[in-house]
Amino acid sequence: MTLVLISPRHTSLPFAHWLPERAGRMVAVAAAGTPIGDGFREVRTVADYRDDAAVLAAARDLANRHRPTTLLALAESDLERASLLRGEFGLPGLGSAAAAAYRDKVLMKEYARKAGIRVPDFAPVRRPSDVTDFLAVRPGPVVVKPRSASGATGVYVVDSVSEAAALPAGLLESTPYEVEEFVEGQLYHVDAFRVDGCRVAAVASRYTTPGCLSHWSDSPHGSRTLTAGDPLRPLLVREAWRLVEALPSPPTVCVHAEFFVTPEGTVVLCEVAARVAGGTIPVMLRHVLGTDPRELWARVECGLPNDLDAVREHVAAAPLAACCGLPPRRGRIRRTPHAPAGALDFTLHNGAGDDWGGERYAQRKSGDFVASWVVTADDDERLTAALDATVAQVSAGFDWELEAVSGAVI
């Protein structure tokens, strides 16, 4: 039996198709009102999937009654929950010490720095004065962000003591935060997979814009894989594997590691997560790995066979690939586009009439898109041309009724 924790963002994933050997031998915890696919013996729902106590109570009830031998959790928010459950029920996979190191941005940087990996100057934040004290030593800009969040939520770029004082009241007391120096440079990511101590693949990519914060300006953003001749590719891959060794990683682990590369060519750790990447990246990686990375990792976590040599061979021969997503604007969609020429895996995530105004827009994450797609090419120039053309077509195909805010339309 396999216990699956299904985040609301993952309810559409075809677990029964990916894990046919487990059909009828899976139980799951999911949010109430979210559609779950076939293949589950029992599904327990919770009113609020953000409620740790409720999710853990439902999972423990299922585990006590069904005695699972494996546990599958793909979402960032489930990593620590899953590690607790694995410890309680003696299940294989990422344990509590590793989950904490990969979730807590202060702890992960402490591990990395001890191993000689370059990290930004940073400090934990327990009170607003910690930010101003940091600014006194290292003038801004600085980044203030939650220690355990994902998707660029709750992140603030602060340039002065006055801006630090203007942070939302009670913010830093209610959620564990950190402050770190703002690193000038391009943001890259490496998606790496290791099974039973053997390296399977490590794919180095560059974000097409300054990174996850691009959604603040409603700009299209995504990633593109690096060419074989790019000197940064082996350097970033090496740093990713050094990072895996620096943290208390189990023999079987997948990571999504982000690095800044400064104008001088210095590689600096941004952060790392012990999970498959989010947003549009998994769809892009499918064209590189030859299989959806979430399917690959689901089968690994469930102890099911994978042709890992075929994955290695596909990575070696894969074309360049890029993914792109168009974030929502603050308003209601009036018209949606058709799939542009040359786009693969084109997906409309919202339709005409869907409203992204108000609180929904305010709470958007970097992986929230109204449309996403992939392009591939044999060389960097053709990849750039395909990416630019599809971005222009998709952007022009949407029509928005924008929401008025404080007397202005934005």
Brief write-up:
With 410 residues, the chain is of the alpha+beta class. It has 14 helices and 20 strands.
Which architecture of the largest domain per CATH? 2-Layer Sandwich
Largest sheet: 8 strands, antiparallel
pLDDT < 50 stretches: none
What is the top-level CATH class of the largest domain?
Alpha Beta
Task: Please name the CATH topology of the largest domain.
Answer: D-amino Acid Aminotransferase, Chain A, domain 1
Q: Please give the domain count.
A: 4
Mass-distribution shape: globular
Number of strands: 20
- The percent of residues in helical segments reads 25-40%
Strand order, main sheet: write it out: 13-12-9-10-11-14-17-16
Which class best fits the helix and strand makeup?
Answer: alpha+beta
Number of helical runs? 14
Distance between the termini: 50 Å
CA radius of gyration is 21 Å
Strand content: 25-35%
Describe the structure.
40% of the residues are buried. The chain is built from 14 helices and 20 strands. The chain is globular, with a radius of gyration of 21 Å. The chain has 410 residues and is an alpha+beta fold. It folds into four domains: 91 residues, 3-Layer(aba) Sandwich (Rossmann fold), CATH 3.40.50; 61 residues, ATP-grasp fold, A domain (Dna Ligase, domain 1), CATH 3.30.1490.20; 134 residues, ATP-grasp fold, B domain (D-amino Acid Aminotransferase, Chain A, domain 1, 2-Layer Sandwich); 92 residues, Alpha-Beta Complex (Aldehyde Oxidoreductase, domain 3), CATH 3.90.1170. Helix 3 packs antiparallel against helix 4 and helix 4 packs across helix 5. A hairpin with a 2-residue loop joins strand 19 and strand 20. An eight-stranded antiparallel β-sheet has the order 13-12-9-10-11-14-17-16, with helices on both faces. Strands 3-2-1-4 form a four-stranded parallel β-sheet, with helices on one face.
